[in-house]
Backbone:
């Protein structure tokens, strides 16, 4: 069985080495040593071993304590992805190891080198030096033996060390590339929307937000308290920037100062690395020992003489990094991500909060600068006066919408970090910030969703179509459109399930850090519900966007299943878990690359297309009939003005615009919604049919070509009454058309 699994794993590993850069020098290194049995006779708080095959030596630097006395032998086994590759026994007396024959108790704190024979070097496969994030482990059993017969009497110590080769897929280039694509795509969609191509801009923005959500899902996978293979830990670390987990040295110094000044005590795990090892937890064996140790620590603190010392001890057990009884630290889950990012775990919440705030402030600054640049350019005629006119007139509303969108983008990040901070209590001030931002952002987003619901319901009541007000009122579209523009009009409410999905997922990740199995099962249920809902309802704006998002839901569900495998509740062989880890990395790397290429290519096509809106099909909800788009300007606007003048309605342009975002509507609209709806439909049909044949010929049918094939002026609505109950007869429409013809011929209106 193991051999059958090892062959495909070896094939996958050989493929990955082809796409990764070669290392400068081949090495194998271990930086932590863990005891794998209770009452181990050998423990180490610092352990750093580097094996260099080119010179055939092992450099060892450790701070350890040994209580073993007598003659011993070492049973050494090396496993790669759970598959045994080396198994040997070393007798210190026959191997000429000074100080170990016999072994004496005491402290070991002097660095030394050990030679490695050519046969031992040859037994290590070459792939061990080239596979990134190598999942290898060395287990050493120290056994007492009789001096003369060399018969084993008992095992007095068990030691385990994880081995790496210095190669990793946790690369700064991947982080910068993915972040650059996301922010450039959002910026381009904003520019395209500003010049009037709203249909193309909404498609780019929707796909960009979905891709960013996928990146956050990858990051949240790494934040789970489940033991992860090294390649999975490194892969998910590439996307922690999407959660605001970014190390900037001077910011970390400021955050440590802030924590101390507000009554907290920053952790100093990185300052103690020269004397203490850190175990990045990936095996279930570590936590029970730590739990047992902490339990004894809590029971013992009640006997301490000083109240202050007691309080400090309780605080340590609540929020500090876990520390084994022999002195080394253990990090897992969110703390594991912080350690790999080079951030003290007590600074993690504030790091995410600071970067969220930086993005928030940068959005305000950039929008304000763009407004000033547009005004200066228009004043000096560097651009036409009507360029970005909608933005220049309603830039404050646009800014509000952008800030709401930033809040939505950062909601997953702040949900996890704020709730986790409530369990850590790093300082009273940080607790207040966590409560304020979590409940504030939750209230704002659900209030915005409620506003969209109210607007859509009013649109249905007045116009029998939710798309009418949602997409015809620029104020509502610019301010609240981030919640519904990516969905079809009849699924305007789907932002509520997405917010609930984000909230529930974040709560499980933040609150169940010590219960990895619970997290894995919860994520399977959550992702399965998301996949089923997306596949059945298909709420996004068109077929391609639905396929894009359903594919993301499917890969998230598969990742949740893989996460459950990593919990090892079934007692699977380590080789199986190693294979699943490599498969997760390859599958997600391929999927992310495909999504990135799709977004880059479609965005590039839109940039160089003469009319980007025509590249996308019209949505079935006919939102383009209500949205102000560049494809509908020009001759269509001239025809609208001429037709309204012919009917004597030219003064309507002089009336103040009705604020459709305001809940306080006029009494006439409340009292008779059916009549208002019929009047709106009649007015639209009268405008279309009142055009003279000469005007239609002059227009060349452009106003008809902008409509979907086979549609009337009013597209079919999901509501049955939307195309009925017109109070205009055919003769009335013909009469209006005749009036228009007479007016154009100089006769005026009859």
Residues:
């Amino acid at each position: 069985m193991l051999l059958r699994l090892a062959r495909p794993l070896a094939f996958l590993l050989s493929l990955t080495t082809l796409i990764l850069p070669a290392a400068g020098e081949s090495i194998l290194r271990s930086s932590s040593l863990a005891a794998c049995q209770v009452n181990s006779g050998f423990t180490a708080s610092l352990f750093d071993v580097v094996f260099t095959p080119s010179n055939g030596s092992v450099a060892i630097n450790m701070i350890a304590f040994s209580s073993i006395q007598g003659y011993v032998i070492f049973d050494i086994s090396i496993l790669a992805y759970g598959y045994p590759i080396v198994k040997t026994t070393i007798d210190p007396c026959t191997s000429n190891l000074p100080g170990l024959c016999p072994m004496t108790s005491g402290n070991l704190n002097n660095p030394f080198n050990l030679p490695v024979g050519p046969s031992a070097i040859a037994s290590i496969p070459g792939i061990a030096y080239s596979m990134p994030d190598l999942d290898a482990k060395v287990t050493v059993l120290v056994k007492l033996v009789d001096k003369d017969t060399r018969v084993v009497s008992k095992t007095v110590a068990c030691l385990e060390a994880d081995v790496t080769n210095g190669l990793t897929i946790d690369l700064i280039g991947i982080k910068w590339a993915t972040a650059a694509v996301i922010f450039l795509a959002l910026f381009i969609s904003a520019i395209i929307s500003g010049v009037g191509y709203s249909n193309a801009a909404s498609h780019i923005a929707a796909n960009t937000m979905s891709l960013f959500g996928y990146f956050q899902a990858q990051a949240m996978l790494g934040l789970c308290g489940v033991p992860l293979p090294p390649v999975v830990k490194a892969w998910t670390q590439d996307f922690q920037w999407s959660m605001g987990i970014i190390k900037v040295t001077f910011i970390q110094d400021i955050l440590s100062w802030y924590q101390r000044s507000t009554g907290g005590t920053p952790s100093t795990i990185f300052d103690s690395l020269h004397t203490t090892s850190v175990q990045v937890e990936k095996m279930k064996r570590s936590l029970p020992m730590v739990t047992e140790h902490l339990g004894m620590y809590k029971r013992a603190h009640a006997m301490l003489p000083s109240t202050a010392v007691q309080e400090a001890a309780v605080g340590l057990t609540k929020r500090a990094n876990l520390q084994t009884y022999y002195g080394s630290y253990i990090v897992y889950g969110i703390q594991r991500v912080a350690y790999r990012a080079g951030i003290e775990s007590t600074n993690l919440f504030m790091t995410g909060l600071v970067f969220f705030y930086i993005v928030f402030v940068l959005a305000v600054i950039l929008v304000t600068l763009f407004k000033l640049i547009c005004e200066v350019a228009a004043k000096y005629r560097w651009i036409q006066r009507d360029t970005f006119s909608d933005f220049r007139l309603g830039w404050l509303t646009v800014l509000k919408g952008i800030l709401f969108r930033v809040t939505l983008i950062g909601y997953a990040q702040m949900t996890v970090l704020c709730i986790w901070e409530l369990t850590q209590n790093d300082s009273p001030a940080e607790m207040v910030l966590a409560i304020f931002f979590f409940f504030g952002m939750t209230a704002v987003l659900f209030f915005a969703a409620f506003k969209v619901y109210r607007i859509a319901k009013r649109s249905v009541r007045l116009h029998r179509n939710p798309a009418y007000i949602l997409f015809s009122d620029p104020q509502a579209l610019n301010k609240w459109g981030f919640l519904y523009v990516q969905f079809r009009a009849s699924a305007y409410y789907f932002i509520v399930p997405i917010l609930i999905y984000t909230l529930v997922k974040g709560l499980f990740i933040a609150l169940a850090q010590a219960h990895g199995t619970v997290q894995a099962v919860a994520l399977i249920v959550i992702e399965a519900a998301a996949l089923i809902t997306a596949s059945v309802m298909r709420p996004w704006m068109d077929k391609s966007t639905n396929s894009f998002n359903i594919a993301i839901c499917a890969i998230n569900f598969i990742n949740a299943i893989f996460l459950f495998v990593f919990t090892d509740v079934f007692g699977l062989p380590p080789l199986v878990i190693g294979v699943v880890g490599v498969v997760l990395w390859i599958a997600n790397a391929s999927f992310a690359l495909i999504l990135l290429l799709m977004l880059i290519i479609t965005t590039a096509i839109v940039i160089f297309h003469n009319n980007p809106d025509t590249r996308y099909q019209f949505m079935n909800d006919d939102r383009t009939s209500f949205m102000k788009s560049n494809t509908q300007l020009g001759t269509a606007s001239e025809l609208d003005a001429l037709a309204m003048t012919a009917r004597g309605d030219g003064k309507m342009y002089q009336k103040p615009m009705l604020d459709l975002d305001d809940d306080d509507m006029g009494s006439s609209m409340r009292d008779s919604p059916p009549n208002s709806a019929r009047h709106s439909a009649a007015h639209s049909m009268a405008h279309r049919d009142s055009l003279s044949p000469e005007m239609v010929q002059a227009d060349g049918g452009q106003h008809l070509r902008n409509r979907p094939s086979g549609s009337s002026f009013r597209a079919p609505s999901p509501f049955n009454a939307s195309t009925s109950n017109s109070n205009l007869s055919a003769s009335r429409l013909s009469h209006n058309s005749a009036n228009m013809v007479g007016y154009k011929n100089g006769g005026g209106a009859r």
